[in-house]
Write a structure and sequence with these properties.
The structure holds two protein chains of two kinds. Chain A has nine helices and 20 strands. By secondary structure, chain A is an alpha+beta fold. Chain A folds into two domains: 232 residues, Rossmann fold, CATH 3.40.50; 125 residues, Nucleic acid-binding proteins (OB fold (Dihydrolipoamide Acetyltransferase, E2P)). In chain A, helix 6 links the parallel strand 7 and strand 8. Chain A is globular, with a radius of gyration of 25 Å. Chain B has a domain of 191 residues: MetI-like fold. Helices cover 73% and strands 3% of the residues of chain B. A two-stranded antiparallel ribbon of chain B has the order 1-2. Chain B is globular and about 80 Å long. Chain B starts with 7 loop residues before the first helix and ends with a helix. The chains are: A alpha+beta, B mainly alpha.
């Protein structure tokens, strides 16, 4: 990982975070867990820890194994190999109804023949909690998710957002050690989703339960999670805080999955203790990196350039030796608050640049076919070898 | 262009858009009218006549007397059904046998339907195929086959005698038990198919949710699966119960002289006694007996649909 000023400041924050504390005891532990369906490896030798009070997100495209991991935690699937521990207890062979976990299903799985109240009370009554106590707990939980008014309704009489709240209440009312959420906001429309993201985080902070969430939506994961595991083809690509993953991706897959990125291919031509230079035919320029990279000369690297860290100018920048490419504006997307431009380089590579529209303008700054220069600070690019 | 004359096809299309709906709905109603309502009215008419040695063997309902229509209604047939205990016994017997058969069919059919609904794709279609397969042979032949199995000299007795478990052949045919076997065997697919279709539609994650909330599997079945499959249970039960009440072939071939069922009574009145009016009134009374559960079923089902959607 690169050494920079940004990072030494970040070091201090690290210490308060259990995953950076070697003495912290993990709450959930996956130990070489493999799950095979026939010949297909849904999860392939995965090991990682989740700590108490975390809101941990498993992020990945469909079929990456994230849901299988969650279902193994819930007890719906048994690992083909490896072990899962929750709070120090080996979960092998423990059926779902004896696990200290509750799950919020993607489809919510509300019982259609029961009222909201009965749905929420269901789990408590299974545990033999008394009627009066159940009544109180259900009322409290419905108040927490702001569904008290709808207690007598049946699920089909509720909107999608309301069902989501009932599902959350039902899975939280038993105070599980771990709450599992399978695409918790997947069925909601965009506006409601954004609002609910923060509500879920607030509820999590209030109840203090450890949340493990599965999602394919990187924005959702970034907004809500304390840490994210990026998964691909049954393995975990990278685990880190949203900040770490965005600023220091370890691979092109992670860089691509979280936010937008331009990946410019090149070869290492100059390598020093303090800096490195990558010559890129694709970018038509030399890329200067302000730290050392691990690798030998002639090795292929990719510079990951976030669109918002790129500068667009009509005139060439002062220093055209490094970190500057020129091309033609091919596409313009005006989004109001910001504009995105696709710049076509001579090599045929397209570079995406986003610029905030700070001031109100009479007419767009750039138009199609304008020749423009794309440049960036030495620290803006991260270097990826895979 | 509004002034242009419409072609014949355009005229037809416009007519279809306006009236097509009525046509589509009307056709099945016309069918039901022709082949259900009209025969029913004929039978109803005969049930109010008196038996005569004539062609046809009953009195006319309408007659021309003094240049006016006189309607002669004879309620005697219905009163006769009440006075002779034979009919009441036959009705009650039929309902009892049909009810017990329905329960047995449900107990056998439910696990089968559940198994099929939870089987994987290819296995499922094979299993469904096997359920429907018996329909490819004549119903009569299949019931005859049971005679061969249950008879005094049948397969079961031959086998048991051969193994030496019994020394005297068992009397299995011409008992009420044989009638149950026949009805359950014949009507099992009618129970399995509606049950399968409700169980198959059920979201498996509901069961997982119940397990997740601390419910043991058998309790999850009682609290979730069973209530949610109620429409299938009701549909299947009625599809078995209603035809079983009026069943004639099975008690005739497998039942003994003591298994009195209304279908046999009806047949005897028509063909042995040639008393069409009495036979018709027996049929009408049976219809009334069956219409009540059908209406009850529809009432429950419409309530269910209101509750879910």
């Amino acid at each position: 990982m690169p050494q920079g000023a940004l990072e030494s400041a970040y070091e201090d924050v690290h210490k308060t975070q259990p995953w950076n504390n070697p003495d912290a005891v993990p709450f959930i532990r996956f130990e070489n867990v493999t799950k095979k369906f026939g010949d297909f490896y849904a999860v392939d030798d995965v090991s990682f820890d989740i700590y108490r009070h975390e809101l941990f997100a498993l992020l990945g495209g469909s079929g990456c194994g994230k849901t299988t991991l969650l279902r193994m935690l819930a007890g719906f699937e048994e690992p083909t190999a490896g072990k899962i521990y929750i709070d120090g207890v080996d979960m092998s062979g423990v059926p779902p109804y004896e696990r200290p976990t509750n799950m919020m299903f993607q489809s919510y799985a509300l019982f259609p023949h029961m009222s909201v109240e009965q749905n929420v009370a269901f789990g408590l009554l299974q545990d033999g909690v008394s009627r009066t106590e159940t009544k109180q707990l259900v009322a409290d939980m419905l108040a927490l998710v702001q569904m008290s008014k709808f207690a007598k309704r049946k699920p089909h009489q509720l909107s999608g957002g309301q069902r989501q709240r009932v599902a959350l209440a039902r899975s939280l009312v038993k105070r599980p050690k771990v709450l599992l959420l399978d695409e918790p906001l997947g069925a909601l429309d965009k506006k409601l989703r954004e609002q609910t993201q923060f509500e879920l985080v607030n509820i999590q902070e209030k109840v203090g339960t450890t949340f493990v969430m599965v999602t394919h939506d990187q924005e959702e994961a970034m907004t809500m999670a304390s840490r994210i595991a990026v998964m691909n083809e049954g393995v975990i690509n990278q685990i880190g805080t949203p900040f770490e993953l965005y600023e220091y991706p370890n691979s092109r897959y992670t860089a691509n999955f979280l936010g937008q990125v331009n990946l410019v291919e090149g070869v290492l031509v100059d390598d020093d203790e303090k800096y490195a230079v990558i010559k890129s035919d694709e970018g038509g320029c030399d890329i200067y990196i302000d730290h050392a990279v691990q690798g030998h000369q002639g090795m292929t690297f990719w510079a990951a350039l976030r669109p918002e860290r790129l500068r667009l100018t009509k005139e060439p920048p002062e220093n055209t030796k490094y970190n500057c490419m020129s091309g033609k504006v091919e596409e313009i997307g005006y989004l109001g608050g910001l504009s995105t431009y696709h710049v076509l380089l001579a090599s045929g590579k397209r570079i995406k640049v986003t610029e905030p529209n700070f001031t109100r303008q009479i007419e767009p700054r750039y138009t199609w076919e304008d020749t423009v220069w794309v440049s960036w600070e030495a620290g803006a690019a991260s270097v990826l070898s895979k | 262009m509004s002034g242009d004359k419409l072609t014949l096809k355009q005229k037809f299309d416009r007519w279809m858009i306006k009236h097509g709906r009525v046509l589509v709905i009307g056709l099945p109603y016309f069918w039901l009218f022709l082949f259900f309502l009209v025969p029913f009215l004929i039978v109803l008419k005969i049930s109010f006549a008196t038996a005569e040695y004539a062609q046809p063997p009953y009195s006319a309902l309408f007659s021309w007397i003094d240049e006016g229509i006189t309607i002669t209604l004879n309620f005697g047939n219905y009163l006769f059904l009440l006075s002779d205990s034979l009919y009441a016994t036959a009705y009650l017997n039929s309902i009892r046998i049909a009810a017990i058969s329905t329960i047995i069919t449900l107990l056998i059919g439910y696990p089968m339907a559940y198994g099929i609904a939870r089987a994987s794709g290819t296995v499922r279609s094979v299993l469904l195929m096997l359920v429907i397969l018996p329909f490819w042979t004549s119903f009569l032949i299949r019931v005859y086959a049971w005679i061969g199995i249950l008879d005094r000299e049948g397969l079961i007795n031959a086998f048991l005698l051969w193994t030496g478990i019994i020394t005297e052949p068992l009397i299995m045919r011409q008992t009420e038990g044989a009638v149950y076997i026949g009805i359950v065997y014949t009507y099992l697919p009618f129970m399995i198919l509606p049950l399968y279709s409700t169980l198959e539609k059920m979201d498996v994650s509901l069961i997982e949710a119940a397990l997740d909330l601390g419910c043991k599997p058998w309790k999850a079945f009682l609290k979730i699966t069973l209530p949610l499959s109620m429409p299938g249970i009701l549909a299947g039960s009625l599809l078995v119960f209603i035809p079983a009440v009026g069943e004639f072939v099975i008690p005739e071939l497998l039942g003994g002289p003591n298994t009195l069922m209304i279908g046999r009574t009806l047949w005897n009145e028509f063909f042995a006694n040639r008393d069409w009016p009495i036979a018709s009134s027996v049929a009408i009374a049976m219809l009334v007996f069956l219409v009540v559960p059908i209406m009850w079923f529809q009432h429950i089902q419409s309530k269910q649909e209101e509750g879910q959607s």
